[in-house]
Amino acid sequence: MLNDLKQQPADALLALIKLHNTDPRADKIDLGVGVYRTGQGDTPVFGAIKAAEAKLVAEQDSKAYLGPEGDMGFVEKLMPYIFGKDSADMGGRIEGMQTPGGTGSLRLALAMVKRAGYRRVIVGKPSWPNHNQICADLGLEVFEFNHAAADGTTDMDALRAAIASAQEGDAILLHGCCHNPTGIDYTHTEWDEIAALLAQSTILPIIDLAYQGLGTGMEEDAYGLRRVLVAVPEALVSYSCDKNFGLYRDRVGALYAMVADPADLSKVMSNGHALARANWSQPPDHGAAAVRLVLEDAELTAQWLDELDQMRDRMRQVRAKLAAAGKTGGVDLTPVGGQNGLFSIVPFTPEQVQAMRTKHGIYFAASGRINVAGLTMANIDQFVAAVADVTA
Ligand code: LMR
């Protein structure tokens, strides 16, 4: 029986890590999987997290189970950052639970949606490949609309049409900020319109907020999510601390549900708890406990926010330098300057992606998605020259 299983391809994005690692060239560049890198090309542990971890090791007196909801102190401390200081639980309508990373949260959100009787998820195209993969695994149909228009802005007409054509039993999965893979986010005016359109529909919004603070700021990056949440009766929010606390492999995330009537909250969340139990039972503790300790301490919080600002500033500098290269070979790098977060798409053909790898040792996804944080002031000219070479 087991031998009847079909060979599955390795995840294309994760496979890039190995491909890059095994390339012997000293001047190779990794623009693949979404991790932040400093100007020296490292992905260090945040200083605030290091300090919190030291405190955790010194003070933690038990590793006994916490339950399927994980560390509720962590879950609650994050809420003012996500939902706003003044409306952190929307009058008792929001509750959360800890999950293994943003993926664990999305898995629970989509499984909950399926349990609730939703059949289809409206997803912008392109999206993070794991979105569609999780939907497929759960037997949820995906209805795609075009996310980005030819001029490098969002394709609002496509989104309007998708919302207008929605049926009863549809959910919509929206990237809260730092769109992965395009870096093209909705403007505030567009979010205002999206919130109004969703308010008039029966569509359940699921907001994926995996990069808060890496776009334009912690508050600014939550604008769209908050606009949608004040407009609609119910929503789910998938949150990741992997990037904004640099905790990638520790898998730190949270799922929040907002309901219309606070009396329904415990029933809704009990489904999240039951699904967690059936999947991983209880989330891993360490990273979430470290985040909680950061957020419980004013000095560590200030240090964390400062480190986050530095990351964002560096990515802005890289984006500005790429944009300044302008028309490079057959592509225009100008739009990268106005995009947000770790990612942008450069319109390479599949052959050009391959040539960037084989000829220049520069690795990124087949979609042309580059992780701008993989570029430094030391290697950016090399990247631009390679782009000019393969696209000429
Ligand atoms: C990415 O898109 O590179 C990140 O979200 C990491 C991942 O798990 O794919």
UniProtKB/TrEMBL annotation:
Its cofactor is pyridoxal 5'-phosphate. Residues 27-386 form the Aminotransferase class I/classII large domain. InterPro entries: Aminotransferase_I/II_large (IPR004839), Asp_trans (IPR000796), PyrdxlP-dep_Trfase (IPR015424), PyrdxlP-dep_Trfase_major (IPR015421), PyrdxlP-dep_Trfase_small (IPR015422). CDD domains: AAT_like (cd00609). Pfam families: Aminotran_1_2. It comes from the Bacteria. Homodimer. Belongs to the class-I pyridoxal-phosphate-dependent aminotransferase family. This is Aromatic amino acid transaminase. It comes from Novosphingobium soli.
